[in-house]
Design a protein that fits this description.
This protein folds into two domains: 4-46 and 289-394, Aspartate Aminotransferase, domain 1 (Alpha-Beta Complex); 68-284, 3-Layer(aba) Sandwich (Aspartate Aminotransferase, domain 2). The protein is built from twelve helices and 15 strands. The protein has helices at residues 19-27, 47-65, 75-87, 104-114, 129-136, 157-164, 185-198, 253-267, 272-284, 287-312, 338-347, 377-394, and strands at residues 33-34, 97-100, 120-123, 141-144, 147-148, 151-152, 168-171, 202-205, 230-235, 247-250, 318-319, 327-331, 350-351, 353-354, 367-371. The termini are far apart. With 395 residues, the chain is of the alpha/beta class. The chain is globular. The chain is 42% helix and 13% strand. The protein has a seven-stranded mixed beta sheet with strand order 2-10-9-8-7-3-4, with helices on both faces. The chain has a four-stranded antiparallel beta sheet with strand order 11-12-15-14. A two-stranded parallel sheet has the order 1-13. It binds pyridoxal-5'-phosphate.
């Protein structure tokens, strides 16, 4: 057999296989209680409403829906998003909105746009593991921004910017993946002020903002972005369905035009059919009622997991109490080996993601990310019981 890997590009050397993808293969088995993936609750997918929308699209505009479309996206959907962004405190004209194949594509396009090999990206530490992969593919160097229990500390930025000359800052201010932490309003405003002073682009990734089940909404960083530094990305994955692969970014004009060229080179455009089906679904149904159902289910599931952890976990473990989103983040005692714990856990038919994958550099062995959106309450209780028993054993 030929060894084709000798022809691989140098940047492939940086890519690490994702533990989570490997785990997800195992967790697809129905007898496993999985706190691993970032999967929404499938029983809350609006299957019937999407079916009706798909039928109406195909009956009324079938040929257009099956034709190539503009790279920018389907204009009525861009208009809908622009209005929705306005309700979130983000002012973006429809022409500022680029529809992407999931918000994951925004991360890929941003990396392609900004990064030469060795360029620095500032991130939270830990951060979203598929963002690490997207940026690693363009040979990023990662510099963590100091954080505390309220997320990243904006005052640490000027020194980091001077020292490392980063190309952009990547942040997830709402119910961060993996920690569940939300950045307070005054830090968002401070962040916007500091990046404006330094002309630093920010990729603000907000897949979970609509999924708040406690507390009050905080406007995105983009809300304070008078200088036009912030690329604000969001998605329909958590509020409608991830299988649609529909995300979007509201970007400053010069970024938008370059991202558009990169998007054309990458996939020409996001599926015309999916965009029209999503748009029709959005205008035919009461979105706020649907999102309210998701919020209340996830809030209840978080409460069940939190209570089960309190009842079951041995001393030395603590965890975050997110006000929304789909994950909480467990800190174990120093010396806990998350990977070893996972191997044991899979034998006992429960899964989670060890913290290590979320740290761009080293560390993270004593952390676990637990997803609570994808399991029914009784499965959450049983899964935590098994996991806690293994934690006790390992300690
Ligand atoms: C922080 C974050 N960003 C982006 C994504 C990608 O979402 P999608 O491509 O489905 O829009 C996810 C998915 O879990 C995520 O957690």
């Amino acid at each position: 057999m030929s060894d084709l890997s000798v022809n691989f590009a140098g940047r492939m050397r940086q890519l690490r296989p994702s533990t989570i993808r490997e785990i997800l293969k195992v967790t697809a088995q129905p007898d496993i209680i999985s706190f691993a993936g970032g999967l929404p609750a499938p029983e809350l997918f609006p299957v019937e409403a999407v079916r009706a929308a798909a039928e109406s699209v195909l009956v009324t505009t079938g040929p257009q829906a099956l034709q190539y479309g503009p790279s920018e996206g389907y204009m009525p959907l861009r208009e809908w998003i622009s209005a929705e962004a306005g309700r979130r405190g983000v002012s973006a004209a429809p022409t500022d909105v680029l529809i992407t194949s999931g918000s994951q594509q925004v991360l890929d396009l941003a990396a392609k746009l900004f990064l030469n090999p060795g360029d620095v990206v500032l991130t939270e530490n830990p951060t979203y593991l598929a963002a690490i992969q997207a940026f690693q593919a363009f040979e990023a160097r990662f510099v963590p921004v100091p954080t505390d229990d309220n997320g990243l500390i904006p005052d640490a930025l000027p020194e980091l910017i001077r020292r490392h000359r980063p190309k952009f800052l990547y942040t997830i201010p709402n119910f961060q993946n993996p920690t569940g932490i939300t950045l307070p309003a005054e830090r968002r405003a401070g962040l916007a002020r500091i990046v404006a002073a330094h002309g630093l682009p920010v990729v603000e990734d907000d897949p979970y903002g609509k999924l708040r089940y406690r507390g009050t909404d905080v406007p995105p960083v983009k809300h304070w972005d008078e200088a036009g530094c912030v690329l604000y990305a969001s998605t329909f994955s958590k509020t409608v369905a991830p299988g649609l692969r529909l995300g979007w970014v509201a970007a400053p004009a010069e970024v938008f035009s370059q991202m558009l060229i990169l998007k054309q080179a990458s996939d020409l455009h996001t599926s015309s059919l999916d965009q029209r089906v999503a748009y029709t679904y959005l205008i035919q149904n009461d979105q706020s009622a649907h999102i309210e159902r998701i919020r209340s289910a996830y809030g209840a599931r978080f409460a069940v997991m939190d209570a089960a952890l309190q009842n079951e976990m041995p001393p030395g473990f603590s965890w975050t109490k997110p006000e929304g989103g789909m994950f909480l983040w467990v800190t174990g005692p120093a010396g806990l080996d998350g990977m070893a714990l996972l191997r044991k856990a899979i034998e006992h038919k429960v899964a989670f993601v060890p913290g290590r994958d979320f740290f761009p550099a080293d560390g993270g062995d004593n952390f676990l990310r637990l997803n609570f959106s994808n399991s029914a309450p009784d499965r959450i209780r049983e899964g935590v019981r098994r996991l806690a028993a293994l934690c006790r054993e390992q300690m």
